Amino acid sequence: MEEKKVLLSVQDLVVKFKVRGRSLTAIRGISLDIYEGESIAIVGESGSGKSVFTKTFANMLDSNGYVDSGKIIFNDPDLAETSLDVGRKEDMRMTSIRTRLDIYSMLENGAETYRAMKALEAEKKARATISDEEDTVYQEKLADLRFERAETFNHKQTLDSHEKAQVKEAAAKIAALDKQIEALEADRKKQLQTRARAAAADTAYNAEFTKKMAGLREQYRKEIAKPITLEQHTRNVNLAKEIYLSVGRYDFVSRNRMIRRLLKACKEAMRQGLDMDSDEVRNDVFGAVTFRVKLIDEAENRLFGRCVLDLANIKYSKDLTQIRGKKIATVFQDPMTSLNPIITIGQQITSIILKHQHCSEAEARIRALELMKKVGIPNAENRFDDYPFQYSGGMRQRIVIAIALSCQPKILICDEPTTALDVTIQAQILKLIKDLQHEFGYTIVFITHDLGVVANVADRVAVLYAGQIVELGTVEDVFYDPRHPYTWAMLSSLPQLAQRNTELYSITGTPPSLYNKIVGDPFAPRNPYCLKIDTIQDAPMFKVSDTHYAKTWLLDPRAPKIEKPEAIRNLHEKLVEAFNI
């Protein structure tokens, strides 16, 4: 069996948003590999994190959103120059980098002593301030009070002037909350002052600290005076080449700025005694550069490497233009949000082709017409100069797909692209997306809440709930052998399974608040098969087969045997009967 190539690897991704002074965790530790040329569906209720998850790939989060931790590794060697000529100028630059790295590597001899000095400084600082645990409690209390005040203020603003009693009550509550906030801040300030004075007054400790620190500094000075070894020098030469490769794609000014940042990161890593040959350490150090090229070989006057790109760490606009739209394109639910209403369809497609395919205007027009025909626009030559309002909803969506494909993407994200269309057009668009995949070879990431759509478009399915993947498998795994109660509930609510004169199944309750820390299984309050352990501890991801995984305690060998609901047993036969196949 041929091994699939991982195109995009998501590792322990956590995405948060700042909302009214509080932190909302939208994505909670997702890990997922997406393979080249496959179609994977991301399924879940509204608010489960589907769109946030995929927007993170192209750095399209709202301004208050950010990646708190985790990595998104995009494996595409075309994204960076993986071979660079090394002429005289470059030799001088690399010599300079090597010299500075050789100096930095001397610090490795004193790494243990350096860590001891840092630990001693941290200990002294901790004595003069409050602990992280106390600070967390304070910040949570303060955030709750401020949130309550904001809600009360907003409520007061909605009251009419004649509702004097309610306005007065709201004003009094706001004043009381202001006093509580002021008292809490004053108490924190008093605690800090008290601890700082106590630390300063402890003369015995301070004398001992000064004595220990002086001894460590002298020891550190002697250790770093030792010459570096041949092994250290050789390793640093290779590291210098790797740094040069990593920044080689930037202009001169950006390159020098980024070299300084990388050298500073290397210096700190060496001071901490970290193993610079470790991929994990190098990934952290080279986090200063979005496109990291690791040295793999060299020939005369030429270096060769492989590209490693962490999409969770994109910082520069030049990097974004390499990714957003070009390597990762998105088709949204409403095509009018993607089209400019005052520019003709032909202009919108050709402008993208000119930007990404580097051809003449005449050639761009020919390619645009070819794309319009491929996506099923009749009389493309006559419709080329029409405006978006002259197209139907289905035809506009076809144009958006054409624009996305004009970027020649490796990944096409389809964010519920058929939800706003009628059923007949939905089927046509889904077929179009799949047919074009065979021709252009892109990977499809399809976002939907409709499991009925999934069967027609996906090879694999990832079921999301409260910002986590709770089940992952092939379409056959998830449809015909589902293991998570949430997947059971979603399948049970398929309209195709409804019986005459019976009520359509719906999932009771609401998803948990993502402002708060979730204890146990987030689906537990809505789960009719909830076990006691579900309310205490979140389940690990259990392996059902090589392609199928589910995050539920029901798969634990100690769990009671529970059959899936009657409504989704023999699902294949029921769906065949529903569609009269």
Widest β-sheet, arrangement of strands: 8-9-10-3-11-12-14-13
Look at the helices and sheets and give the structural class: alpha/beta
Strand content: 15-25%
Low-confidence stretches: none
- Which percent range fits the helix content? 40-55%
Mean pLDDT: 87
By DSSP, the count of extended strands is 14
Radius of gyration: 29 Å
- Describe the main β-sheet briefly: 8 strands, mixed
Shape descriptor reads globular
- Count up the helices: 19
End-to-end distance, in Å? Answer: 32 Å
Q: How would you characterize the overall build of this protein?
A:
This protein has 19 helices and 14 strands. It has 581 residues and is an alpha/beta fold. The strands form 2 sheets. The protein has an 8-stranded mixed beta sheet. Strands 1, 2, 4, 5, 6 and 7 form a 6-stranded antiparallel beta sheet that branches. The chain is globular. The mean pLDDT is 87.
List keywords for this structure.
alpha/beta; 19 helices; 581 residues; eight-stranded mixed beta sheet; 17% strand; 14 strands
What topology does this entry show?
Elements: E1 6-19, E2 22-35, E3 39-43, H1 50-55, E4 65-74, E5 83-85, H2 88-105, H3 111-127, H4 132-158, H5 164-201, H6 203-224, H7 230-247, H8 252-271, H9 279-285, E6 291-299, E7 302-310, H10 317-323, E8 328-331, H11 345-357, H12 361-374, H13 380-383, H14 393-406, E9 411-415, H15 423-440, E10 443-448, H16 451-457, E11 460-465, E12 468-474, H17 475-480, H18 485-492, E13 542-543, E14 549-550, H19 571-578
Parallel strand pairs: 3-10, 3-11, 8-9, 9-10
Antiparallel strand pairs: 1-2, 1-4, 4-7, 5-7, 6-7, 11-12, 12-14, 13-14
Helix pairs in contact: 2-7, 2-8, 3-6, 4-5, 11-12, 11-14, 12-14, 14-15
